[in-house]
Amino acid sequence: MIRPPHLLFCLLAALLATGAARAGETRVAVASNFLDTARELAARFEKRSGHRLLLSSASSGKLYAQIRNGAPFDLFLSADAERPQRLVEAGLADTGHLRTYAVGRLVFWAPGHPGDAGACRRHLEGLKRLAMANPRTAPYGAAAREVLEALGRDPASLRLVLGENIAQAYSFVASGGVEGGFVAAAQLARRDPPPPGCRWPVPESLHPPLRQQLVLLRRGRANPAALAFFDFLAGEEAREAIRRSGYDLP
Fold it and tell me: Which UniProt keywords apply (predicted)?
């Protein structure tokens, strides 16, 4: 049976309309350390689902403040567990959609200083000026401060170059503005070729664990795209991408 051309056109239009209706858009707040990985995951998710993700990145503290002040986000991927929990307690997020998606690792990196991890630690102990994220707004910065104190280095006696977030701290070190600094392991793991210099992977015993939590915000409860991305991040494909990016898995 041959269908009239106008009927085929109508069927095609109906199919396209159905697909458009099913596709959605969601706004995601992403901690700076996770942005590169989030971009990779977003591209995979969009290709498979047809949904569109709008990513916004800053320090966890800054994003938290924006959400508290009414910023229109559906999901929050924080670099800590504290701020998502606060949003749940404030009634701004869903306790049933709260989980750890990655565990971050802190590294001291000195691009112009060759050597192994031991040499890198000794170099850190002699430095008077180094970079790190602002401990008041960035979980990786708070962890770096804990490390300095555990090593007997008084942060107040050092010339600390504070980045607004861990991405800016990385930039300070990579540009040569400082000899070394604390960065996220994922920032180094994703670079090809590997960045030069020495690295000291900071033992987890020197700072509280960097449990990075994801939470569905109140605005996203009725958003199919937000719910779908929340579920996608728990899948094996996403978990493997997160692991390859230099994170530990919960």
Answer: Metal-binding, Molybdenum, Signal
Q: What are the strands, taking DSSP E only, across 172-250?
A: 181-184, 198-201, 210-217
Q: How far apart are the C-alpha atoms of 239 and 248, rounded to whole Å?
A: 10
Q: Is the dihedral of CA 189, 134, 61, 58 positive or negative?
A: negative
- Annotated binding residue at 32? no
For the chain, domains (ranges, CATH) are 23-104+210-244 (3.40.190.10), 106-206 (3.40.190.10)
Q: What distance in Å separates the CA atoms of residue 158 and residue 76, rounded to the nearest whole number?
A: 33
Backbone angles phi, psi at 53, to 5 degrees: -110, 135
Closest CA to 186 of 60, 44, 41, 34: 34
CA separation for the pair 136, 59 (Å, rounded): 10
77-118 pLDDT, tens digit per residue, is 999 999 999 999 999 999 999 999 999 999 999 999 999 999
pTM above 0.85, yes or no: yes
pLDDT at residue 1 is higher than 80:
no
2 carries a ligand binding annotation: no
